[in-house]
Write a structure and sequence with these properties.
The protein is an alpha+beta fold. The chain has 12 helices and 8 strands. The strands form 3 sheets. Strands 1-2-3 form a 3-stranded mixed beta sheet. It has a 3-stranded antiparallel beta sheet with strand order 5-6-7.
Length: 260
C-alpha cells in the first residue's frame, strides 16, 4: 500500500501518542510489559525489584507469580521494576533504611493505579461507583497486586470472588435456603465493581438485567412465558425485584421464587 506523500509521519506520531497515553507497551517477545512512563520520585532512581526483596521477603516470595512482577523500566537493559512500577524509584528508600516518606503508598491515592488502568479511572467517574475517588476505600481493598492475577479470590486462593465482596456486603452472601443461581457465577454477573451508568453498579437496567439469563419464550400471541408463568404484565412494570415479586434477589430463606 502506497502512503500519500507527507502522511506517514503523522500516522506514526498518532500511534506513538496512543501508546504513551496508555502508559504501557506490551513486549510479547520478552515475555514482559515495559513501562513507558513509570511513577517518579524527585531525586530517586530505579534500583530493581531484587533490592526490595532483601527487606520484604514476605511479599517477594509470591510476587514472582503476580502480573505486576513482569513490568520493566524503559531501555534495552532495564531492570525489572515490578515493585517500583507502583511504589516509585526506590534508591532513596533503600538509602534511608526504609523510611516510609521516601516511597509512594498506592493505598493513599488511586492515581497510582490509574497511570496504567485508564479505563478503570473512567469507570469510577460513572454515576454509580465504589467510593474509591472519595477516599473511602482503595483499590487494594479488593485487589492484591503482590501475587497471582491481582484479583482476590482468583486462581488457587481459598477465598472466592464472592467472599471478597461479602467482606463489606455481608447480607448478600447468605447462606440462603433458596439461592439465586447467579450467585454461583459471581457478583460480577450482575454488577460492575468499578462503575456503571445504572444504579447499584448493575451491568444492565430493569428487567433487561434478568432477561440476560432467564430464557423467555412466546408460544402464544401476546404472552411472554418465563418458566411456566406468563410475565407479559409483570415485564411492563419495570424491575423484576419490585411490585411484590422477586425482592430477595440474592437469595431467600422462605421462598424458591426469591420472595421475602
Amino acid at each position: 500500500m502506497a502512503w500519500p506523500q507527507g502522511r506517514l509521519p503523522w500516522i506514526v506520531l498518532l500511534l506513538l501518542g496512543a501508546l504513551v497515553g496508555l502508559g504501557v507497551v506490551s513486549c510479547a517477545s520478552m515475555g514482559q510489559t515495559q513501562m513507558v512512563a513509570p511513577p517518579q520520585i524527585p531525586g530517586a532512581t530505579f534500583v530493581g525489584s531484587e533490592a526490595c526483596e532483601q527487606c520484604h521477603q514476605d511479599i517477594s516470595k509470591d510476587f514472582v507469580t503476580a502480573s505486576h512482577y513482569r513490568l520493566k523500566a524503559p531501555g534495552d537493559n532495564a531492570k525489572n521494576i515490578g515493585c517500583e512500577s507502583c511504589h516509585g524509584p526506590g534508591s532513596l528508600h533503600v538509602a534511608s533504611g526504609g523510611a516510609p516518606n521516601t516511597i509512594i503508598n498506592p493505598r493513599k491515592s488511586p492515581e497510582t493505579c490509574f497511570q496504567c488502568h485508564l479505563d478503570k479511572r473512567a469507570q469510577f467517574d460513572l454515576p454509580s461507583h465504589h467510593p474509591v475517588l472519595e477516599g473511602k476505600i482503595s483499590c487494594a481493598d479488593c485487589h492484591d497486586p503482590h501475587k497471582g492475577s491481582v484479583i482476590m479470590g482468583g486462581g488457587t486462593e481459598l477465598l472466592s470472588p464472592n467472599e471478597v465482596c461479602a467482606r463489606c456486603h455481608t447480607q448478600q452472601l447468605g447462606p440462603f435456603v433458596f439461592e439465586h443461581e447467579a450467585m454461583r457465577e459471581g457478583c460480577t454477573t450482575c454488577h460492575n465493581p468499578h462503575g456503571s451508568v445504572n444504579a447499584r453498579l448493575l451491568v444492565a437496567r430493569n428487567q433487561t438485567l434478568c432477561l440476560r439469563c432467564h430464557f423467555q419464550q412466546q408460544t402464544t400471541t401476546g404472552a411472554i412465558f418465563i418458566g411456566d408463568v406468563n410475565h407479559t404484565t409483570f415485564l411492563s412494570r419495570g424491575t423484576c425485584w419490585s411490585a411484590g415479586c422477586h425482592e430477595a434477589i440474592h437469595g431467600s430463606q422462605v421462598n424458591p421464587h426469591l420472595r421475602f
